[in-house]
Structures are given as C-alpha cells and as structure tokens.
Amino acid sequence: MRLLLVEDDAALAQNLRDHLQQLLYSVDLATDGEIGLFQGQEYDYDAAIIDVGLPKLDGISLIRALRDAQRDFPVIILTARDSWQDKVEGLDAGADDYLTKPFHPEELSARLKALIRRSAGKASPVINNGPLSLNSASGEVLLHGQSVNLSGSEYKLLQFLMLHRGEVKSKTVLTEHIYDQDFDLDSNVIEVFIRRLRKKLDPDNSLGLIETLRGQGYRLNKLDDAQGG
C-alpha cells in the first residue's frame, strides 16, 4: 500500500514515516501543500495523511484541490485544532476522517486500514477469496486454513491484489503501490514476487489464482467458496 504523507513538522513526519514503513506501507513525504498537491495529482495513492497547518497551501485547500482534480483516494487530516467547526470544514472539503494532535500512531494505522478497506468495498479486516484469506489487522495469510509465511514485499503485493481481485493491474501500477516514489519502475522485481506467490499459494495452478495477461499485467482471480474444500 502506498501512502502520501503531507506534514511540515520534520520530527513528526519522520516518526510517522518510520512507524508506517514498519507496518509495510510505502510512504512518500511532502513537506508543504504545493508539493503535496503535485504528488497527489501525479501518483495514484491508496490513501493520504494531510496536516491542516501547512506552508504554501493549507491542508483544507489541498484536499479541495485534490478532489477537484478527481483524486478520490481516502484522506485523513491531522489537526491541532479540536473545535468541531474545524473538523466539519475538513470533512466538507473532502476528507474521510480526522485525527486531533497529539494522537497515538497505532490509532492512525488502524484508521488507515479501515479507510483503505472501505475504499475497496471491504468492511472487514479479513479478505476471503476461496481457500485464501488475508487478515490486514494481524497480517496473517491462510490457505486452506494453514498459515502461509510471506516476506514483507510478497505480503504487500498479495494484499493489493486481494483488495482489487478481478482487476487487471500492470507491473507499473503494482510497483507504484508497493514501493516508494524513487524506486526503479523499470525493475522486473514484480515478476519475481508473482512467481514466489504462485509457488507458495498455487504451485500447480489448480486454483488459477494469479493470471498473467500478456502486455497488460496480472489479475488475481475471484475464487468460488467451493474451491476452499
């Protein structure tokens, strides 16, 4: 999952970035509203965390500009103001949730997970697909009820595909959602991780779990409940 963090407080930004990266998010950091607007228009994020009190372009104006540009990824606003009017203003501008400073990083991560799930039409932290299930709260992946050991990158790739199962995703899109913006997008690393996932989850292709579409990318197919037996 790839996040946009727009925060001008250097210490807070670094702490949040470290915390989120430990949770296997890829995090792009912008230190003012103008940079945040450029990045939000340039890249397709899974969610954004935006401080209200930003230099050059304040957070509320930034959110309005992103929504006007048809950028519909979930947004959490961070604010040091605790009046209900400020919260309403942020939500009316297009934010999906808010946190008042100071806050616990664990609360931020829990809200992020919920927003990303809801934006993909998934209310529960457990995503099921036939015999395969992924719990975004615990990070556990089960196949036929048995735990599957995945690396961090393999887990991030599977989670994104599970949230968008049935959809074709190009290597570029997959790379952008798994790695930070300075990663080499021409890398063939996605092919490597797809092979590893197939080997661990569907080695004989009996499920037909991950499909390669030549010249287009990959699709994690929707599996019937009957395939879980």
TrEMBL record:
<keyword id="KW-0804">Transcription</keyword>
<feature type="modified residue" description="4-aspartylphosphate">
    <location>
        <position position="51"/>
    </location>
</feature>
<dbReference type="InterPro" id="IPR011006">
    <property type="entry name" value="CheY-like_superfamily"/>
</dbReference>
<keyword id="KW-0902">Two-component regulatory system</keyword>
<keyword id="KW-0597">Phosphoprotein</keyword>
<feature type="domain" description="OmpR/PhoB-type">
    <location>
        <begin position="124"/>
        <end position="222"/>
    </location>
</feature>
<dbReference type="Pfam" id="PF00072">
    <property type="entry name" value="Response_reg"/>
</dbReference>
<dbReference type="GO" id="GO:0000976">
    <property type="term" value="F:transcription cis-regulatory region binding"/>
</dbReference>
<protein>
    <submittedName>
        <fullName>Response regulator transcription factor</fullName>
    </submittedName>
</protein>
<dbReference type="InterPro" id="IPR016032">
    <property type="entry name" value="Sig_transdc_resp-reg_C-effctor"/>
</dbReference>
<dbReference type="GO" id="GO:0006355">
    <property type="term" value="P:regulation of DNA-templated transcription"/>
</dbReference>
<dbReference type="GO" id="GO:0032993">
    <property type="term" value="C:protein-DNA complex"/>
</dbReference>
<dbReference type="InterPro" id="IPR001789">
    <property type="entry name" value="Sig_transdc_resp-reg_receiver"/>
</dbReference>
<feature type="DNA-binding region" description="OmpR/PhoB-type">
    <location>
        <begin position="124"/>
        <end position="222"/>
    </location>
</feature>
<feature type="domain" description="Response regulatory">
    <location>
        <begin position="2"/>
        <end position="116"/>
    </location>
</feature>
<keyword id="KW-0238">DNA-binding</keyword>
<dbReference type="InterPro" id="IPR001867">
    <property type="entry name" value="OmpR/PhoB-type_DNA-bd"/>
</dbReference>
<dbReference type="InterPro" id="IPR036388">
    <property type="entry name" value="WH-like_DNA-bd_sf"/>
</dbReference>
<dbReference type="Pfam" id="PF00486">
    <property type="entry name" value="Trans_reg_C"/>
</dbReference>
<dbReference type="InterPro" id="IPR039420">
    <property type="entry name" value="WalR-like"/>
</dbReference>
<keyword id="KW-0805">Transcription regulation</keyword>
<dbReference type="GO" id="GO:0005829">
    <property type="term" value="C:cytosol"/>
</dbReference>
<dbReference type="GO" id="GO:0000156">
    <property type="term" value="F:phosphorelay response regulator activity"/>
</dbReference>
